[in-house]
Amino acid sequence: MSRSTLLDGSVVTRRSDDTPRGGQPSEWLSVLRPSNTLVQFSFGDGIDADSLVELASAPGLDL
Question: Does pTM top 0.90 for this prediction?
Fold first, then answer.
């Protein structure tokens, strides 16, 4: 598991499953915004995690 903080204060947590089972996600990503909005993704190979972080921290996503 890895954790980092973005410039806006959002906390990004990423976890990987070293032994994924057929068809199941192998990566998990959560972004906790300063407003306490939580955005979570589960995904497999071929998806760029940085793109998901960008999506989860997009302006206007906070409710």
Answer: no
